Amino acid sequence: MDVAFIEAKIGEIITELEKEVMEVVSDQSLDKKQTNLRMKPLKSTKQILLNAIESIKMVEEVSRKEREGAYD
Q: Per the count of CB atoms within 10 A, which of 14, 26, 63, 72 is most buried?
């Protein structure tokens, strides 16, 4: 599994999410409640993606250790 590639692609998605966040924050036509309502899904999505990266890294690490243990 190419973890670096996956991490790079997720990083690209997070960058796009951050752009959306900046658009929402800078939209003067939205009141505070509307801004918060639009921000929550973006924030949740970012956290899910960050958690996915960490999970993938952990799985890769466990797999690597198991392979090393099999050769001992």
A: 14
How many alpha carbons lie under 13 Å from residue 5 in its C-beta half-sphere?
2
Tokens in use for 46? 């970012």
Question: What's the angle, vertex CA 71, arms to CA 69 and CA 72, rounded to 5?
Answer: 65
3-class SS at 39? helix
Q: Is the pLDDT of residue 72 over 70?
A: no
DSSP symbol at 30: S
Q: What per-residue confidence (pLDDT) applies to 71?
A: 66
Lookup: tokens for 61: 């690490």
